[in-house]
Design brief:
Layout: E1 14-19, H1 40-53, E2 61-68, H2 76-89, E3 92-102, H3 109-117, E4 122-128, H4 132-138, H5 144-156, E5 162-168, H6 175-187, E6 192-197, H7 205-211, H8 220-236, E7 240-243, E8 246-248, H9 256-262, E9 267-270, E10 275-277, E11 281-285, H10 289-297, E12 303-308, H11 311-324, E13 329-330, H12 331-338, H13 342-345, H14 347-355, E14 359-361, E15 365-368, H15 370-374, H16 376-386
Parallel strand pairs: 1-2, 1-9, 2-3, 3-4, 4-5, 5-6
Antiparallel strand pairs: 6-8, 7-8, 10-11, 11-12, 13-15, 14-15
Length: 387
């Protein structure tokens, strides 16, 4: 397995570190995490070992992202230790974006001030809502007041690059309720907002509630209206809708890390359940802390499996990811990569989208309009059937 995961590839530009620990699981979340915090010290030690295992002659790292789970459950000393290990084993650019996810229920001003001091330069704050009823439904551990305080403390600590994560489309949510919530988020003056539709993920408590009839999800029509209203309201407030769920005050405040995912830039993922991509091959670590620790103890890369992407998979992912963003599909890049013209290959689909005002075609790119983004999944399925 280690031969298949080259330790000397020069192409990785992004590093993701998964911290799979939470105080309590949220009802909707399908990301891998556990509530046994006693495993954290051994896990940090293993993470550092994995980082060293995969060190080598790489291109400079442009972004580092601490995600979870709840990275803000780590002590400052543990975060410093991980950062130092990355810097000791990889080439880090001076302006590398170092993003850290925080849960408002796990931080205070002192913690945030120290994060700033050690080099974290972007915060993703998991607010999800400023409405206590919504927070209780989602089983979040923080209150609306704690969310406000976390944002205020982050600003006072010196952070200017702050993104707020918000969720809309709860079963009982009305348009006015969401717009009030969104307005509170905007009033906090973040430079970035990630607004996610509530989705019913398999094997989550929320899915179980839906199957038992305890929860009735909003219909697709209501969800689509909320999506369009979100985009229109934030556009009027000078937020750039640069990806289906992402809004930035300017190009400079786009998530550089996520943008690399959407551009299919090679990245390394460290930790249990983390994924890596080298441009041709995608691999993923064990979705089990115990299995992850065991492999590290035996000096093995903790990889569960991998897949080498077929030409068809690469084509579809390029289309799917491109259509998610305002950058769209770069026609010249597509032709150079796949040796075929996007316009010629998919003329029947693009003509239909253009006729329905769901897409836009220029000499350089093909993008979806707001109406097109509403139907993104269906549009991607149409492309998939033709590839």
């Amino acid at each position: 397995m280690s031969d298949l995961l080259s330790r000397s590839s020069p192409d990785y530009r992004a590093v993701y570190i998964h911290i799979p620990f939470c105080i309590k699981k949220c009802i909707y979340c399908d990301f891998y995490s556990k509530t046994d915090l006693s495993l954290i010290p051994d896990y940090i030690k293993a993470l550092k070992t994995e980082i060293k295992q995969r060190s080598g002659q790489h291109a400079p790292i442009h972004t580092i992202y601490f995600g979870g789970g709840t990275p803000s459950l780590l002590s400052i000393e543990e975060v410093v230790s991980l950062l130092n290990t990355i810097k000791d084993n990889f080439s880090i650019l001076p302006d590398t974006e170092i993003n850290f996810e925080i849960n408002p229920g796990t931080v205070n001003f002192e913690y945030l001030e120290k994060l700033k001091t050690i080099g974290i330069n972007r915060l993703s704050i998991g607010v999800q809502s400023f409405n206590d009823d919504k927070l209780q439904f989602l089983k979040r551990i923080h209150t609306a007041d704690q969310a406000v305080k976390a944002v205020d403390d982050a600003k006072q600590a010196g952070f200017s690059n702050i993104s707020l994560d918000m969720i809309y489309g709860l079963p009982f949510e009305t348009q006015s309720m969401w717009l009030e919530d969104l307005g509170k988020a905007v009033n906090m003056k973040p430079v970035h907002l990630s607004c996610y539709m509530l989705t019913i993920e398999p094997l989550t408590p929320l899915e179980k509630h839906v199957k038992k009839g305890m929860v009735k999800p909003l219909g697709q029509k209501s969800m689509s209206l909320l999506f369009k209203k979100t985009a229109l309201v934030l556009s009027e407030l000078q937020f750039e809708h640069y990806e289906i769920s992402s809004f930035a005050k300017s190009r400079a405040y786009r998530s550089k890390h996520n943008s690399q995912y959407w551009d299919m830039t090679p990245y390394l993922g460290f930790g249990a359940s983390a994924h890596s991509f080298d441009g041709k091959k995608r691999s993923w670590n064990h979705k089990s802390i115990i299995k992850y620790l065991k492999d590290i103890d035996f000096d093995r890369l903790p990889v569960e499996d991998f897949e080498i992407l077929t030409l068809e998979q690469k084509k579809l992912e390029t289309i799917m990811l491109g259509l998610r963003t305002s950058e769209g599909i770069n026609l010249l890049k597509f032709k150079n990569q796949f040796q075929l013209s996007f316009q010629d290959e998919f003329e029947n689909i693009t003509d239909t989208l253009l006729d329905q005002s769901m897409g836009s075609l220029s000499s350089n790119k093909f993008t979806l309009s707001l109406e097109g983004r509403v139907c993104l999944n269906d549009i991607v399925e149409t492309f998939a059937r033709q590839i």
